[in-house]
Structure formats: structure tokens, C-alpha cells
Design a protein that fits this description.
This protein is an alpha/beta fold. It is built from eleven helices and 17 strands.
């Protein structure tokens, strides 16, 4: 359901051309110019269908999602796509992978054994990906498990290994020592498993040096405008614009509290604009007294706590005629970027995007819209 623009408290615009140009930049930056786009969680909250079509049109053929349901939704949108599932191989779902023609990422020796037993019953080799954990300690075969698999010539019988992958824990911090450690381990992994494509770098890894690239990049966040290297200026184009509507403007005396808990105290006679979005829409509560909006050339601070449906901004310094009920304020966009919002909220751009709520009116612009 898309809330009507007239009724919604805020409008979310997604620029599909920006997604396509970010994708192209990532592909140029990756030495092998080979990418598989990661579009899990409804394409990072931006809408699976328009995003998938845009990336397909931009030339992307291989996609990673997290779960089988996401793969099923994507299969309906892109019948020809090469679809891989990162973490959703659960008991009883194997036949669905075959029915949907999607490739599981095998993360444990048990999954490999289960899948090998299934593969034996098939007339052809079955496509799988192998995920080795090179130091994140989250998901994938341990180095020891991977070595054991590699030493046993029967362990991958019946498989056509498509991708051998690992994931960097600290790629957004280039100087972190774990990056080199993981890369060296992944080189070992590729000696054990030289088949298929080696895939190592996600968004941030693509902007490390080419020794991190191997064959296939797996970017998600940067496609959607998140800065892959937060310590540097962003090379990516902003993809979303979120505009909230002002519902009321009020004058408040000096030494008054604003919002729940009265956590903001006015230090002067202030004008407060109340905007119709809140943490119920994914405008994070941690932006209370920390976030900012952008109104007709003026950056205005969030004052007081963000509530479920409302945010209060101090607009005292904005010319009076610009601030009125019905006026729009940029909550996220080119002036207050996803990365700015993330920093103010004490989180990352990924969480800002995937938190975006269902109550916004959503519009898509760009050639593939
Ligand atoms: C989410 C994910 C990606 C994409 O990462 P970004 O940082 O969004 O580019 C790549 N690989 C794996 C295993 C992931 O879970």
C-alpha cells in the first residue's frame, strides 16, 4: 500500500537514476568490473521491484538476498536473474531453492553435508556458494572447517561451486589491521577452493586497494548512497529525499520545555515547527536534540525528543514567511545526507535506510520508474 501524498505526513522520493549511477561507479572502481548487487531487506528499505529493475537495466545480472522469501519475490520480478541467498538455508526449504532456481550460500559443514545428500539425487551438478569466515566470527565456515572440506575430495561432490566468498569486518576503516589479516586468509581460501568466482569486497572493500577485489564485488549500501568510507568525502550520489510536512508553528517563551520529558529548554523566545514524522516512521529517537532538518536554505536543529509521529524543530532563525503549516522540511536528502543523519543518531546509514517506515508516500523518479 502506498499512502497518498495528500494524506501522508512525509514524502519519500527515491531517485533510480542515482542508484544506476552509483552502480556504474562501483563497477568502474572494482578492478574486475564484476559485481553482484546485494538487495536484501527490500533493497535496503528502498523497494525491491523498482531497485531490481533499475539494476538489471544498468547491467547487473547476479543478485544476493538474505532470505528465500526475498529470492522468491525477486524471481517474480526478474525471471532471468542469477539469484543467491546469503543466510536462509533452513531445514525443509531445499526443494524451494530448486523450484525457484536460486543458489544457496553454504555456511557450515552441516549445510554442505545436507546439500551434498540432496545433490546426489539430482541428475546434474547443483550450483552452490561457499562462505568462509576469515575473521569476522559471524557466519561461514571457520578456516579450520574450510581446510577440512578442502582436504576431503568427496566433500564437494555433486556441486558446481559458483562463488567462494568471505566478508570483511572492518572495511570502512582502511587502517584496521584485521583487513590485511582477512585478505591474507582469503588468499589461502582461494588456494583451497580455486573454482568459481572469489568474492570478498562489499561496498567499503571496493574502496580499499585492488588487492581486496578478487573476482566479484558484492556491494549493497553504496549503491543506495551510503558513504563506503565515512572518514572521506562520499563518492556516492544521494538516492533518497525524505520531506516532512510542518503541521503547526508555535511561539514559545524563554525557559520553557519542549516535547516529552521537557529535555529541550528554550534559552530565548523561540519558534518551534512541529513536523509529522517520528520514530514510528524510522526517524530514529536517538535523533532527539541531535538531528537537523533543512528548510529553505536554513539548517534547523531537532529540539526535544522525537516522538512516534512528530518531530519538533527550532526554526527561530528562519524568516517567518517560509515557516507555515503545510511547508516541507528536508529530513534526509542532499543537504542532510543519510550519512549526516546516521552520525547524528549514533548509527550507520544502513540502519537509517532500513528503518524507513511504511507510512511515507513513496515516489520513484528516473528513467526506470
Ligand atoms: C549485506 C552484505 C553485503 C553487502 O554489504 P554492503 O556493506 O551493504 O555493501 C555483502 N556481503 C554480505 C555477506 C552481506 O551480508
Amino acid at each position: 500500500m502506498n499512502v497518498s501524498g495528500k494524506r501522508a505526513g512525509a514524502i519519500l522520493s527515491v531517485n533510480l537514476d542515482a542508484i544506476a549511477s552509483n552502480y556504474t561507479l562501483l563497477r568502474k572502481t572494482h578492478t574486475q568490473q564484476a559485481l553482484a548487487a546485494v538487495i536484501k531487506e527490500d533493497a535496503y528499505g528502498l523497494g525491491l521491484e523498482p531497485v531490481a529493475r533499475t539494476l538489471w537495466k544498468a547491467g547487473n545480472r547476479m543478485f544476493f538476498v538474505a532470505f528465500l522469501d526475498e529470492a522468491e519475490a525477486l524471481r517474480k520480478i526478474l525471471p532471468e536473474a542469477d539469484i543467491h541467498v546469503l543466510s536462509g538455508f533452513f531445514e525443509g526449504t531445499a526443494e524451494d531453492f530448486f523450484a525457484l532456481d536460486v543458489v544457496p550460500v553454504l555456511n557450515t559443514p552441516e549445510e554442505i553435508a545436507t546439500w551434498r545428500a540432496i545433490a546426489k539425487k539430482k541428475s546434474q551438478k547443483v550450483r552452490v556458494d561457499l562462505h568462509v569466515d576469515t575473521g569476522m566470527n559471524r557466519l561461514g565456515l571457520t578456516m579450520k572447517e574450510a581446510e577440512t572440506v578442502a582436504e576431503n575430495p568427496h566433500s564437494l561432490e555433486g556441486f558446481d561451486v559458483s562463488v567462494v566468498m568471505s566478508h570483511l569486518a572492518c572495511a570502512d576503516t582502511p587502517e584496521h589491521a584485521l583487513n590485511e589479516t582477512q585478505r591474507d586468509r582469503f588468499e589461502t581460501v582461494r588456494k583451497w577452493f580455486p573454482m568459481g568466482q572469489g568474492s570478498f569486497a562489499a561496498s567499503s572493500g571496493i574502496f580499499l586497494d585492488p588487492s581486496y577485489h578478487f573476482d566479484l564485488g558484492r556491494p549493497g549500501a553504496a549503491v543506495f548512497g551510503v558513504n563506503p568510507q565515512p572518514e572521506n568525502p562520499s563518492p556516492m550520489t544521494q538516492v533518497i529525499e525524505l520531506k516532512g510536512k510542518i503541521v503547526q508553528v508555535r511561539d514559545v517563551d524563554t525557559h520553557q520545555g519542549v516535547g516529552y520529558g521537557a529535555t529541550h529548554r528554550t534559552r530565548r523566545k523561540s519558534r518551534i515547527a512541529t513536523v509529522t514524522a517520528g520514530y514510528g516512521d524510522g526517524y530514529l529517537r536517538s535523533l532527539s536534540n541531535k538531528g537537523a532538518g533543512y528548510l529553505s536554505g536554513h539548517t534547523v536543529p531537532v529540539v526535544g525528543r522525537v516522538s512516534m509521529d512528530l518531530i519538533t524543530f527550532d526554526v527561530t532563525d528562519v524568516p517567518e514567511k517560509l515557516v507555515h503549516a503545510g511547508a516541507e522540511i528536508e529530513l534526509i536528502g542532499t543537504n542532510v545526507t543519510v550519512d549526516d543523519v546516521a552520525e547524528a543518531a549514533g548509527t550507520n546509514g544502513y540502519e537509517v535506510l532500513t528503518a524507513l517506515g511504511a507510512r511515507y508516500h513513496r515516489t520513484y523518479s528516473g528513467q526506470t520508474a
